[in-house]
From TrEMBL:
The chain crosses the membrane at residues 12-36. This is Acyltransferase-domain-containing protein. Belongs to the 1-acyl-sn-glycerol-3-phosphate acyltransferase family. Pfam families: Acyltransf_C, Acyltransferase. One of its GO terms (cellular component) is endomembrane system. Keywords: Acyltransferase, Membrane, Transferase, Transmembrane, Transmembrane helix. Residues 83-205 form the Phospholipid/glycerol acyltransferase domain.
Length: 328
């Protein structure tokens, strides 16, 4: 009983705190919106710092207060590099894992998520995402394409620093979706995956082709994996659990690959094959993680990827030094 009360208390404290913070930021964003007309770069930078501080609160609760331990393997990314980031989609937790890399590589202010259109109406968080200029999509290519083109053209024109996060599977991985995906794969003569869905490639094709010969020169491939020390592979905490409880019995792993956009084929059919191959590799890696967790993988040393803490990150977010200038 006491345990439950304290969990509820913590949930109310962190959830409520973050929510109020978001609403306060929404107000600041609105009040400062005239600045957008005067100095676009400053306004965007302020926006990004404010948005980043919301991500930061959530991140610090996850990594420090509630002891969520994330490990990393694969390519060591440079700081402040622009990229299209491809992620396998499991749950809401995914964004916390993606953000964990963004904080360590100083790209939090560049994060651009594709969010579900309906989120726009969610007070606090959703409004914040709207004001941050996240890209809202309806998962309907005909109606989304225009919006995405417009967003991308703006980014290219201003050489805006970006990390564009795309979930190529288009939806979260679930048992039912996997069965549907298998049927689809059989129909099209595609490989059968067990840990990811067949990627949809329209959005990816559009992103990669839109950013060819631009300031965005890399695709990052992130494979996210979840485990629970007793309950096993694929088990992950809900957002409510993350905000309310110690999560040190969960394990989180991210495998990172860095791929030059130049090396990705331009032709539509080849891009598709390329994406299928990428998901094939993800599936294999996840299978290994499922059986052996990170035993067979070279994990990047902890010191290199340690969480530097709330104050350090806050200072970074609002510092006015060259941090604002991003690599091309
Ligand atoms: C930043 O905030 C202003 C309002 O202050 C808003 O109009 C603008 O769309 C926001 N997004 C970006 C990416 O600058
Ligand atoms: C997708 O959007 C187009 C254009 O807005 C519309 O005509 C079509 O009915 C939509 N399709 C679905 C499945 O909602
Ligand atoms: C893929 O991108 C090319 C170049 O932008 C475009 O011509 C083609 O229509 C796209 N294919 C799909 C399926 O979106
Ligand atoms: C798990 O580890 C064992 C022993 O190291 C190895 O034989 C097996 O192939 C691994 N599983 C996968 C899917 O790689």
């Amino acid at each position: 009983m006491f345990e439950n009360t304290s969990r509820l208390g913590r949930l109310a404290f962190y959830g409520g705190g973050i929510f109020s913070f978001c609403v306060a930021l929404n107000a600041i964003q609105l009040v400062t919106s005239p600045l957008f007309k005067i100095n676009k770069e400053k306004a965007r930078n302020l926006n990004a710092s404010l948005a980043g501080s919301v991500w930061l609160l959530i991140q610090d609760v996850f990594e420090k207060k509630h002891k969520g331990k994330i490990t990393y393997s694969g390519d060591d990314l440079p700081e402040k590099e622009n990229a299209i980031v491809i992620v396998n989609h499991r749950s809401w937790d995914d964004f916390i894992l993606v953000n964990s890399v963004a904080f360590r590589k100083r790209t939090v202010k560049s994060l651009k998520y594709f969010a579900k259109d309906s989120l726009k109406f969610l007070p606090g968080f959703g409004w914040g995402m709207y004001l941050m200029g996240q890209i809202f999509v309806k998962r309907n290519w005909t109606s989304d394409k225009k919006k995405i083109d417009k967003a991308f053209n703006g980014i290219k024109k201003d050489k805006e620093p970006v990390w564009i996060i795309t979930y190529l599977e288009g939806t979260r991985f679930t048992r039912e979706k996997l069965i549907q995906s298998h049927a689809f794969a059989k129909e099209r003569n595609l490989p059968i995956f067990n840990n990811v869905l067949i990627p949809r490639v329209k959005g990816f094709n559009a992103s990669v082709n839109a950013f060819r010969n631009s300031h965005v020169k890399y695709v990052y491939d992130f494979t996210l994996a979840y485990n629970h020390k007793e309950k096993g592979f694929g088990e992950l905490p809900s957002i409510a659990t993350i905000l309310s409880s110690d999560i040190s019995n969960y394990q989180f792993h991210i495998h990172i690959r860095r791929i030059p956009i130049e090396s990705i084929p331009e032709n539509e059919e080849e891009v598709y094959q390329w994406a299928i191959k990428m998901f094939h590799d993800k599936d294999k890696l996840l299978e290994d993680l499922k059986q052996n967790w990170t035993k067979n993988i070279d994990v990047i040393s902890e010191e290199k990827m340690e969480w530097k803490g709330l104050l350090f990150e806050l200072k970074k977010l609002f510092s006015r030094n060259k941090d604002v200038k991003y690599l091309e």
